[in-house]
Amino acid sequence: MKALLVIALVLLGIPRARAHDADRAFFTIYFESTAIRIEAEVPWTFRKAVSQAFPEAMLSKDSLLIAQAFELYLRNSIKAFDPANKELTFLKWNSLPAEGHQHSGHFELFFEKGKLARLENHCMLELYEDQENQHYIPQWDLSFRTNRQNPSFKFESDQSSAILNSWFFVGLALIFSLMVGLKIRERLLSE
Questions:
Q1: From which residue to which does the signal peptide run (predicted)?
Q2: Is the residue at 3 inside a domain?
Q3: Quick check: helix, strand or coil at residue 17?
Q4: Distance CA 66, CA 51 (A)
């Protein structure tokens, strides 16, 4: 009976195993009025990456030293650049309460406000050959990935104007539809 209970618990856990991928991290990028904010959810292996980069800090029990190691790792791993290839200043990072999985890390990074032309994300790429960092920018409805082979992503010369262009075409289509509708109405009324 005990064996059946263990088997049932293991089988119930299998569908959730994908959510615990040690080689996947998720980054959502927001353009705010004062800064570029990147919200990150990383697996438990993030701590392992920081430990490899700063073993002395992670071996100590000093929480301030550990926090400094996390910040240094993030500063070295994630970089934002403007169209002139000038690095946007890393301002700060904050740890956030865990959402969902208690063993994952959740934090936010702040970069100086500027036009984002390229993002480099080497976060945890040293751990796994197939490490993948998935990014999403809600304002642009854009998703992309970084990995060992392609650790940076270059945005279109003006991603925001691409959004404006799409709104222009929506507006143009709306005006065209309105004109066609008026023509049809005019014909129906003249008959």
A1: 1-19
A2: no
A3: helix
A4: 9
- What is the model's pLDDT at position 154? 94
Domain count, the chain: 2
Residue 120: which domain range? 20-155
Contact between 109 and 96 under an 8 Å Cβ cutoff? The reply is: no
Same domain, residue pair 182 and 165: yes
56 shares a domain with 95: yes
- Residue 173, token pair as written in the block: 């289509």
Beta bridge pairs of residue 88: 80
Are 115 and 70 within one domain? yes
Arithmetic mean of pLDDT over the chain: 82
pLDDT at 174 (0 to 100) = 72
Tell me what pLDDT residue 28 has: 96
123: tokens are 């976060």
Q: With beta carbons less than 8 A apart as the criterion, state whether 23 and 128 touch.
A: yes
Pair 24, 43: CB distance under 8 Å: yes
| Contact present, 156 and 137 (Cβ < 8 Å) | no
- Are residues 95 and 184 located together in one domain of the fold? no
Task: Of 30, 190, 56, give the one whose Cα is nearest residue 110.
Answer: 30
Query: 165-171: long-range contacts (C-beta < 8 A, 24 or more apart)?
Result: none
**Mean of the pLDDT values across residues 162-167?**
53
> Span 107-115, mean pLDDT?
95
